[in-house]
Amino acid sequence: METDNLAAFQLLLDRWAEAIVANDATRIGSFAEPDWTMVTPEGGPGKREGFLAAVESGNLTHSEMSFEVLEARVYGDVAVVLAHGTNKGRWQGEPFAADEWVTETFIRRPSGWLCAFSALTPNYAAAASTME
Questions:
Q1: HSE (CB half, 13 Å, CA atoms) of 103?
Q2: Alpha helices in 40-122 (DSSP H)
Q3: Fewer beta carbons below 10 Å: N end or C end of the chain?
Q4: What is the pLDDT of residue 3?
Q5: Long-range contacts at 6-15 (CB < 8 A, ≥ 24 apart)
Q6: Strand partners, 61
Q7: Full-model pTM
């Protein structure tokens, strides 16, 4: 069962990453609940519409994104997924790169799993190892 969950959520996050790299706000939004909240170290909690508006305007673009699902726990119609994520892109024209731990909370809907919350935690261990 655990292996099935890992594979299913790896596929889901791979598809979501493809939508993000395509910079397609409509596709990105199709993976998230209408009230999706993403917590980032840079900006704290942010709502779905703000993220999608930044993508739609071109202020936020991604050129790379990948996830490695480490754990996927399903509790009925709720799932919590822990992944290691990396991405690169541009924010308001300035390049960025991130290496982070990603915690996603999904809700099972008739159409499939939709993300309700995303929490991004910088991978400080990786940053420290590149400085040595």
A1: 7
A2: 48-57
A3: C
A4: 78
A5: 6/69, 6/71, 6/72, 8/72, 9/69, 9/72, 9/79, 9/81, 9/106, 9/113, 10/67, 10/68, 10/69, 12/106, 12/112, 12/113, 13/67, 13/69, 13/81, 13/83, 13/104, 14/67
A6: 90
A7: 0.91
Tell me if 83 sits within 8 A of 104, measured CB to CB: yes
Which amino acid belongs to residue 109?
R
CA angle centred on 53, ends 49 and 56, rounded to 5°: 140
pLDDT tens per residue, range 95-124: 999 999 999 999 999 999 999 999 999 999
Give the CATH fold of the 2-131 domain: Nuclear Transport Factor 2; Chain: A, (3.10.450)
Task: Reply yes or no on whether the pLDDT at 57 is more than 60.
Answer: yes
One-letter identity of residue 96: F
How is the chain split into domains, by residue range? 2-131
